[in-house]
Design brief:
Elements (H helix, E strand, L loop, with lengths): L2 H13 L10 H22 L3
Length: 50
């Protein structure tokens, strides 16, 4: 394996995030989740479904 291939493999492993238990972006995840809830609620209200 060349040095370039090894560096590329290492960089790819660092970037690959699966959102497992060691992923510490809880704040962003919560904000995106609540944003989705608000957008769906606005859509339901505007469409007159409730």
């Amino acid at each position: 394996m060349t040095a370039t291939a090894a560096a590329t493999t290492t960089t790819a492993r660092r970037r690959a995030r699966t959102g497992g238990p060691e992923d510490r972006s809880k704040l962003l995840e919560n904000l995106l989740g609540w944003t989705l809830v608000v957008v769906v609620a606005m859509f339901v209200t505007q469409a007159g479904l409730m």
